[in-house]
Write a structure and sequence with these properties.
Chain lengths: 102, 573
């Protein structure tokens, strides 16, 4: 890439917006996933009996079961949220930058 | 002419497999009677995939076709293929076996394997699609010294591929011996030879389609099993859990976290290796170059996460249902596990299962679907191994041909024809090596190898990759220091751990139990931060002229990374 086009894109307000918003969004989602997963691991390490509590009196199913499934579902939902935002907002910004350069 | 000659060699290698229909050799305790249904079903799979390979071979002309299927795979197809790469026989049979043996712990393990995917999506999937061409080293060496970074990336890729491959080959040999009643060496040769045919002739196109077909077969088979098993409990998980608790020797303990995670340090270390290791596996990263653009790359992670998550929920149901359903089938247990009246002794449920807990899913297939479905699931398990080793070998071959040969040895002056030829020779050599190592390691303890592969991927590949994408002050020397230290510390700490120092090298304590020099079972909690630290500190003090140029080049890299302007397109123009 030529230095002048690097400077042109860098100075483009939409580019700044794209970089900032994507960076924040991606790292926020990453932190959410890390908190969910390592929160789960820390509960297992320090308070495993919490997950072994039955979901209702007399039930065999423990809280750990829906929690585990919820973590699996949350991973899928988080990727879905990212795709939805990237497909609409980030792609639109990228398109605007590309069109302005031509 | 040469092509026909190669076909001949490979078909000759396959010949022992075709001749197996003769009477089984007796004398081995582990071996099962030859399973003709399973072999017939597997032959149908092989015939189908060879037809695809033939079709793919005609379309594979350029290096781009060979490495990335021409970049023409859709996000949905790639999602299935990624899921296929990830749903190995080890995770299908191993995790359902783990659930059968310890209940809830199996779920903890599969969650660890899954949560790496969102992180791949948020931090590296689109970025590596925009920056790279054929291998992840294209990305980590983007603005750095090509020779140093590519050599390092190729070496750590090959080490990861080698350990992963050995574990798969040994697992394949044992499993196929058990499922099909084949000799161990025949199974290893058959897997190696078929994999070479797929990769050498069909390149990434054939590898991808083998992966997609296998993923669909595995997902449908596992769905059928889980639904059929749940129907016996009136589709009530509570009822299934209740009966499992009554049947299992550990009783209520199977409903909560148990012994798998004993202390926080080991738990977090394993979690790091599983989560970030996925983002450093060369055969997984390579899949992102098969789609046309960043948009399809992100779609593929979305679909893959869905399929993999769904698959893990299925294996969890399969493992739990097996506790109840297999206990009603005394014929699946060793004679010593049975009481006088022919029922299964409760304490013997886990230890007494014939063929070990890895066979749980296979036995359940027989219990819910009869001999025909048993054959189907056995054939799918074989196909699974085949597809995974093909992906691994292609990733290893591309590290040799694209990174080591084309960029380091020929310094970018090689032509495509030579590069493709080198990668085919590399595939053939890696295939032979995999067969030889598979046979050599037959009776070795290879349990640590997959863990080590993940640890190296998390400690050597991932830190260099993610820092090169996001940190503008990084330099070649920093990347080199971090990558090398990550690799060495991951390997060294694994050697000192119980799995190698005790279980493989035979060091025991006073009670005869195997011990490690260190209490850490997985090195990632030390080796991964160490890699990041050295990348940071060495880059910080790097004041060379080269370092200045590299820092300056970051803006251009970031623009291409963020916008895709200048990225490799779907077709060469």
């Amino acid at each position: 890439m030529q230095q002048d086009s690097v400077d042109a894109i860098k100075a483009h307000p939409r580019y700044q917006e794209l970089v900032c918003s994507r960076k924040c969004f991606a790292w926020n989602l990453t932190v959410i996933m890390l908190v969910i997963y390592y929160g789960f691991i820390l509960i297992i390490a320090f308070a495993p009996s919490l997950l072994g509590t039955p979901i209702a009196d007399g039930a065999v199913t423990t809280i750990g079961m829906p929690v585990g499934v919820a973590i699996i579902v949350s991973a899928f939902v988080l990727t879905g949220i990212y795709v939805a935002k990237a497909n609409s907002r980030f792609d639109a910004l990228t398109k605007a930058i590309r069109e302005d350069l031509q | 002419m040469k092509r026909y000659y190669l076909w001949g060699v490979l078909l000759a290698l396959l010949a022992p497999f075709a001749l197996v229909a003769g009477p089984a050799v007796s004398g081995e305790v582990e071996r099962q009677a030859t399973n003709y249904t399973a072999i017939a079903m597997f032959m149908v799979f092989v015939a189908g995939t060879l037809a695809i390979t033939y079709w793919a071979a005609k379309r594979t002309r350029s290096a781009k076709d060979f490495y990335t299927a021409g970049g023409g795979i859709t996000g949905f197809q790639n999602g299935l293929a990624i899921a296929g790469d990830y749903m190995s026989a080890a995770s299908f049979l191993g995790i359902s076996g783990l659930v059968f043996a310890s209940g809830y712990d199996g779920l903890i393990y599969s969650i660890g394997f899954l949560v790496g995917w969102p992180v791949i999506m948020f931090l590296i999937a689109e970025q590596i699609r925009n920056l790279g061409k054929f291998t992840f080293a294209d990305v980590s060496s983007y603005r750095f010294g090509q020779t140093q970074i590519r050599t390092m990336a190729a070496i750590s890729s090959l080490v990861v591929v080698a350990f992963y491959l050995i574990a798969q080959m040994v697992g394949a040999g044992k499993l196929i011996q058990l499922l099909f009643g084949l000799d161990y060496w025949m199974a290893v040769v058959a897997v190696g030879a078929l994999m070479m045919v797929y990769v050498i002739f069909g390149g990434m196109t054939a590898t991808t389609w083998v992966q997609i077909i296998k993923a669909v077969l595995l997902l449908s088979g596992a769905t059928f099993m889980a639904v059929a098993a749940l129907s016996t409990f009136g589709f009530s998980p509570e009822e299934m859990f209740r009966q499992a608790v009554e049947t299992h020797p550990k009783a209520l303990d199977i409903m909560s976290p148990g012994s798998l995670v004993t202390d926080p340090v080991n738990a977090i270390s394993l979690g790091l290796a599983l989560m970030f290791g996925t983002a450093g596996l060369p055969h997984i990263l390579m899949r992102f170059f098969t789609v046309p653009d960043a948009k399809e790359a992100r779609k593929s992670v979305f679909y893959a996460t869905g399929f993999i998550g769904y698959f893990y929920i299925l294996t969890f149901i399969i493992g739990f249902a097996a506790i109840v359903l297999l206990s009603q089938h005394p014929e699946f247990f060793k004679p010593e596990a049975l009481a006088a009246d022919g029922s299964v002794i409760k304490d013997q449920l886990v230890k007494g299962i014939d063929g070990g807990t890895n066979m749980v899913a296979i036995r359940l297939a027989e219990a819910v679907g009869g001999n025909l479905f048993l054959g189907f699931i056995s054939a799918v398990a074989f196909a699974t191994i085949l597809a995974v080793v093909a992906g691994l070998t292609l990733a290893g071959a591309s590290a040799i041909s694209h990174d080591l040969y084309a960029s380091v040895i020929a310094r970018g002056r090689s032509n495509e024809t030579t590069e493709i030829r080198i990668s085919k020779i590399a595939t053939f050599s890696l295939g032979l090596l995999a067969i030889v190592l598979g046979i050599v390691f037959e009776s070795q303890n290879v349990a640590f190898m997959v863990g080590l592969a993940f640890a190296i991927a998390a400690s050597a590949n991932f830190p260099v990759l993610v820092t090169s994408i996001f940190w503008g002050k990084m330099t070649t020397n920093g990347a080199l220091a971090g990558g090398v230290i990550g690799l060495i510390s991951a390997v060294a700490l694994t050697i000192l751990s119980k799995a190698v120092w005790g279980d493989v090298l035979g060091h025991v304590d006073a009670d005869g139990k195997s011990v490690g020099l260190i209490a850490l079972n997985n090195p990632a909690i030390i080796s991964m931060p160490l890699a990041f630290f050295f990348i940071w500190i060495v880059s910080l003090f790097d004041n060379s002229e080269q370092a200045k140029r590299e820092r300056h080049a970051f803006e251009a890299q970031r623009i291409r990374c963020e916008t895709g302007i200048g990225a490799e397109g779907a077709v060469d123009h």
